[in-house]
Write a structure and sequence with these properties.
It contains twelve helices and ten strands. The protein is of the alpha+beta class and 405 residues long. The chain has two domains: 194 residues, no CATH class; 166 residues, no CATH class. Helix 1 runs antiparallel to helix 2 and helix 2 crosses helix 11.
Length: 405
């Protein structure tokens, strides 16, 4: 009878009988992957349940971890987009999305420090956006002088930076069109009672707070927010090539006791720590990933345990014929690894589809090669841990029990 027509139990019995009778355990070891494969695919329903658990776990962990990485990118996106090595911020500022106004003297104090190449004042403020069709929402207005090398909106897909030089023109992200009540380029809305025109549309500039970023020239932002001409929310300092950045930072801190002077990396880290940990958002994402992992382990462990329990008599026979416990453990672990490879492949495909579908929405999910590799290792480890429960059951088999059947 061919292998295709025999059950896994018959293959196991014949293989180990031949190995035990001929003393050729190397052949049995070589057959272990085949036996594991046959045993796994013989019960299709159990296989489907196992793969469902693994796929669910992979997708949930991938999405939750991807959201965590995406949240980091979203929180730090504006800071990363600037080239100033030093940020001067109001005392107590928690993140870029926590703006308040400074007097504006910070710019001139920075220009007087040796080693400073240029300084830019950013104006950032919460504002009321009135939709063209009625209704209002809150936005985060960002004003800067990008013609002098300052922060400019990026990923522009419609319009241009040149179009934004006109008075009372703004750039918004396409993913926020519905929230802002607009449909296309050149639509007109109101910010704090003043009419503005959509002169540029950018892509994938999201805000972690879900408040849309709206970019405009600093002069326009001053008028819309009602700030004095010298006031600023943040002052960005670019140092000359080869200058000692830390020494410049210390000198600025000495001259500006009413503000905080931070390196760009320090301000970035502060923003991440605030939104991901002090607000609990990061803990929630990590908890979701751990939940997916636990669910996957439980489902796979239960399925492998049930499968092993159904084959206890066959495993007892193998032990009676001289098969070592290590050989049987190898078969069980191979079953788990085959399940892991199939489940991981399906799970990653589904995860990538979810990420692709969310690209142009306000939900930012990121997949990196490092995360994909970590997920593969986690899936293998999860299935190996799940196999332990089945191995413990087999370890307690009494080979003599086969003769009482």
């Amino acid at each position: 009878m061919s292998d295709e027509k025999r059950t896994p139990e018959e293959i196991l019995m014949a293989d180990l009988a031949a190995a035990a009778g001929g003393g050729d355990m190397r052949r049995a070891i070589r057959m272990a992957p085949k036996l594991a494969y046959r045993n796994l695919f013989h019960d299709r329903l159990s296989l489907i349940v196992t793969l469902t658990g693994i796929v669910f776990s992979v997708v949930l962990v991938a999405v939750q971890c991807g959201l965590y990485l995406g949240s980091e990118n979203t929180i730090a996106r504006v800071i990363d987009q600037t080239d100033g090595q030093i940020w001067i911020v109001p005392l107590g500022t928690k993140s870029f999305d926590d703006p308040s106004l400074m007097t504006g003297e910070e710019k001139y104090a920075a220009l007087a420090v040796p080693g400073v190449e240029s300084v830019e004042n950013l104006l950032v403020g919460f504002s009321k956006w009135r939709k063209p069709g009625g209704g209002t929402t809150t936005i985060l207005l960002v004003g800067s002088d990008w013609n002098d090398g300052g922060l400019a909106p990026w990923n522009i897909i419609e319009g241009s930076l040149h179009d934004l030089n006109a008075p009372f023109t703004v750039s918004v992200d396409k993913s926020y069109f519905k929230d802002l009540g607009i449909k296309k380029l050149d639509d007109v809305a109101e910010i704090n009672g003043a009419k503005v025109r959509i002169a540029a549309v950018n892509r994938r500039i999201r805000s972690f707070t879900t408040l849309p970023y709206v970019f405009t020239k600093r002069e326009t932002a001053l008028s819309l927010i009602g700030a004095a001409s010298r006031e600023a929310s943040y002052t960005l300092v670019r140092t000359e090539p080869g200058a000692d950045v830390e020494q410049i930072r210390q000198e600025l801190a000495r001259r500006l006791p009413d503000a905080e002077v931070l390196l760009r990396g320090e301000f970035r880290k502060r923003s991440l720590n605030y939104w991901l940990f002090q607000t609990g958002a990061g803990a929630a994402l990590i908890a979701g990933a751990l939940l997916g992992l636990i669910v996957g382990v439980v489902i796979v462990a239960q399925t492998l345990y049930s499968s092993t329990k159904d084959h206890l008599n066959e495993f007892a026979t193998l032990r009676a014929l001289g098969a070592s416990g290590g050989y049987i453990h190898q078969v069980i672990l191979l079953q788990a690894m085959i399940s892991a490879l199939i489940g991981y492949s399906i799970g990653m495909i589904l995860s990538l589809l979810v990420i692709w579908a969310s690209q142009d929405t306000t939900l930012n999910i990121v997949m990196t090669p490092g995360l994909a590799g970590a997920l593969f290792g986690v899936t293998i480890g999860m299935c190996a841990i799940a196999a332990v429960s089945a191995i413990f059951k087999v370890t307690r088999i009494d080979p003599a029990g086969v003769f009482s059947r």
